[in-house]
Structure formats: C-alpha cells, structure tokens
Amino acid sequence: MCIIFFKFDPHPVSKNAYRFILAANRDEFYHRPSKLAGFWGTNNEILSGLDMEEGKEGGTWLGISTQGKLGALTNYLQPQQDPEARGRGELVAHFLTTDMDSLSYLKKVSTEGHLYNGFNLIAADLSTTKGDLVCYYGNRGRPEPIVLTPGTYGLSNALLETPWRKLCFGKKLFLEVVEQSHVLPKDALVTQLLDVLNNEEAQLPDPAIEDQGQEYVQPILSKYAAVCVRCPNYGTRTNTIILVDADGHVTFTERSMLNKDPSCWETNTYEFMLQS
C-alpha cells in the first residue's frame, strides 16, 4: 500500500514557486528486497528505487527520468489477489523507458489493465519547453485514462481523490506546507513534507476503507488508517519528495528504512536539470 500527494502548476506566478511537488510513501513488507533510489537505464537517465522480489526484479513504484518522464503507482485495495497476475511495478518501469508520451502510454495500459491486480498509475511528461502533462489511469475505475488539470491531488489505495479519511487528512497537511513553499528554504520544505508523510495519527472510523478492504484490512485497520503505516512486519518503508522548479531543476529526496528496522533510516538527495 502507498499514499501520494502532488500539486502541479505549469505556470507558477512566483519565480520562487515550484511547478511540481510530490510527496509519497511506499508501504511494503519489511522483508521484501529492494534497492534504494539510484540512477539506472541506458545512460543512467532514470532515477528510482527498484523492486528485487524474485520474479518481479526491476519493477518500481515511483521514478523520474532526466527527460522529464515521471511515473507513480499505488495498489488498489482488494480482498482477493490473483497470484497469476502480472507484476504491477513493471508499469512504471516500462513508462520510464518508453518513447511514448504519458497519455498514449496510459491508453495502451488501459487495454491491458485486466492482466493486473488493482492499481492506480500516474504518468507525467514534465517539459520546460512544451509544458507539463499529467495523466491518470486506474484499472478499477473509468475505462479510459484522464488528463489532469493543474491542482492538488491525493491518491491512496482507492481511485484518485477517493475521500478516505486518511487521504483527506494528509492532503490538508500537504496543502498547508505547499502553500508556503515559495517562501520556505528548500531544506525546510523537504523537512515539513517528510513530517506530513510520517504522521501516524489513525483517522477512524472510516467505513470506506472497511467496505473496500473487507476482512483483509480489519486486522491492521487501526494502523492502516494513518498516512504513515507502522505494523510489526509491514508499513511505510520509503518517503519520497520530488520538487521541480520553474526552470526544470529537480530535487529528489528519498528517506528509506534500513535493515527492516523502523528506527533506522537513511536519507539521500539527488539534483539534476530536466533535459527536455
């Protein structure tokens, strides 16, 4: 499970404003092997963490390329999973390595959505010269992908903007921070966004989560109903912040759990200019 908040404004009024801000949590079993974020691809042009689970190596939940392609994935909460379904992490990895634009890619994915368990996929083309395009497709929602209008969005393990209480609560905290982003030093902005992602206040009751998750979610409901999930063997393992300014300068900060220990974390930051 994961949660993502993002805001985009292709033409920010203030010179100090960011045109794209994303804050995301990856929730996963602590024992599932993965690599910390790093550059990869033919010319080291893609930045992401990588799943190293046997049979699903090379998939990812969130990544960005130096060409301005950005992909982000969440699973759709469903009581029954098909063990024979294709690995969802390939959806982001394939987008980051394809020449297709975001809308065309999601249209292709929509014809193959039945091959996967439930998912939500954000695909974006961030171009300083052509303008930014951000699109969304969920294989448990509309049959066609949609182009998003500039604004602020929240995505968890239901369809985009489904008003789960934890999503609404986290989005409110996110908005409070990003509304000050043009006056905050970058380090302070990242720190405050990380604070949002690590909020463990359970937002209960929430009949929407219970109805969708049914018996699967009941044992972990008190923990799962928070922005930051913290269970004994499962929970938030990675926080990611992506900032893109008006000139196309990208700051990518990843805070990752080490050694399956919720008290041990490592933070790394990467910066580069979009090549588009």
Automatic annotation (TrEMBL):
Query: Where does the source fall among the domains of life?
Result: Eukaryota
Among InterPro entries, the record links this protein to: TANGO2 (IPR008551)
Instruction: List the GO biological process terms.
Output: Golgi organization; protein secretion
GO cellular component terms attached to this protein's record: cytosol; Golgi apparatus; mitochondrion
Could you tell me which Pfam families the record lists for this protein?
TANGO2
Q: What is this protein called?
A: Transport and golgi organization 2 homolog
Q: Taxonomy-wise, where does this protein's organism fall, top ranks first? A: Eukaryota, Metazoa, Chordata, Craniata, Vertebrata
Whichever gene encodes this chain, its name is: TANGO2
